[in-house]
Amino acid sequence: MAGHSNTTHYPQGRLFPDALMREVRERFLQVERDHHGHERLYFDNAGGSFRLKAAVERFAQIDAVPDNTERIHATARELQDIQAAGVADVRLLLNATGGSVYAALTASGAMFEMVRAVAQNVPGTNMVTTVLEHPSSYDAMERYAREMGRELRVAPSNRATGGVDVDAIVGLVDKGTSVLNVIHASNISGAKLDLEAIVRRARAIRPDLYILVDAVQHAPHGLIDLQKTPVDGINIAPYKFFGCRGSGFAWLSDRAAALPHHKLSAKPADFWDLGSTAPWQFAVVTEIVDYVCWLGAQAPEGGPAGDAAPGDRRARFEAGIAAIELHERALLSRLLNGGDGAGAVPGLRAMPGVEVFLDHPDLTRRDLIVGIGFPHLDCTRAVREYGARGVTVYERSATSLYSRRMLESFGLAGAVRVSPLHCHSTADVDRFLAVTQDIAQAFASA
């Protein structure tokens, strides 16, 4: 199936055909206007994501059912089937076999629990992570390294790529490393880590090494394939993947799932859910996977889904993610380089009064996130200026607990984070560039 998701043949990406672009936008809520009906350009999808209409509708439908799933009547069995389908779709999304699917309130909570279980039960002298981790990973590693009396080793970032080099991570792993925890892609720079190489080389040093991955940022933008990257734990957040808040999912390998963890005593050793899970969580995951598979089925002739069998759901999913990745890469290219033709607004790279941070030229190594700055405008004020012009972006400031460690590693005091989604069009990007140019000109000599 690897060929279905190979997007390297399009280094500058490939936009959806116009008809498909219209269909995609129609499937999402509030793409053009906010919930009050005000026109808005929402470019903060790394902090969440637009919601699929089908996911929100399914959430309301299933959550309205009062029945307890642990019963024997028809409605309970229906809810059980919904949960089973959702579990299967989490596995499909990750291309995972075996192990356990863990439904939690948040992906952050799931990560803390996975780190705790490994740190408290797997012997070693040190634990390895990176400076670019989300606090739910980094803080968990820091806490349990301290509690277990182990050295916490932190791989530095690469200011040229915006990511973390494989050598920097693997160089910290040795026979005494009990757990390696790495992010799949940075939520500040969009840089993708080479997870396949990291897993292969780290396990060459310690074959029984436990590896945990934060895939929350990357999952909506690129393929995850645990057959190629056999890790022990990985988490995703449906609300950042076109779904709903109040839900997080993790998958654990057979050996990780069997580690001692918080659970009811009568439950199986590899069972991680605590209490009654909400059936809507699973129904929403299925809606997300259904949508990506639908998108994969629309792939143009000769596209990534070209030889996928009609019944091969994983192949369709791969094709859908590939289509998303290619469209978003084309949007990234347009953000950076601008459009063609007379009167086109320059891209961020050529726009006077704008600096693009961590701007690695190889777009195949990046998800759709751009960090920018204005010489005469701090990032918080810049975000307010965007808001006054109908554009929502996010400030990444060194004063924030979610940003400080990462920004300091890059030598940045702050950045305006720009994160569109695949339901955006080139017209949306051009509008954003025009607003950015307006802000840059207004504060050119402030």
Task: Summarize the entry for a quick read.
The protein has 13 helices and 13 strands.
Describe the structure.
- By secondary structure, the protein is of the alpha/beta class.
- Helix content is 38%, strand content 13%.
- It contains 13 helices and 13 strands.
- Strand 3, helix 5 and strand 4 form a beta-alpha-beta unit.
- Helix 2 packs antiparallel against helix 9 and helix 9 packs across helix 10.
- The N and C termini lie far apart (54 Å).
Task: Provide keyphrases for this structure.
446 residues; alpha/beta; Aspartate Aminotransferase, domain 2; four-stranded antiparallel β-sheet; 13 helices; 38% helix; 13% strand; globular
Number of helices: 13
Sequence stretches where pLDDT stays below 50 over 5 or more residues = 301-307
Q: What is the average of the pLDDT values?
A: 94
Please give the CATH class of the domain at 59-288: Alpha Beta
CATH superfamily of the domain at 59-288: Type I PLP-dependent aspartate aminotransferase-like (Major domain)
Number of separate strands: 13
Would you list the SSEs in sequence order as H and E? HEHHEHEHEHEHEEEHHHEEHEEHEH
Question: In order across it, which strands form the biggest sheet?
Answer: 2-8-7-6-5-3-4
- Overall, the morphology is globular
Fill in the CATH topology of the domain at 59-288. Aspartate Aminotransferase, domain 2
Radius of gyration: 22 Å
In which range does the helix fraction lie? 25-40%
Assigned CATH architecture of the domain at 59-288: 3-Layer(aba) Sandwich
How much beta, percentage-wise?
5-15%
Distance from first to last alpha carbon: 54 Å
Largest sheet: 7 strands, mixed
Could you say which structural class the secondary elements and strand pairing correspond to? Answer: alpha/beta
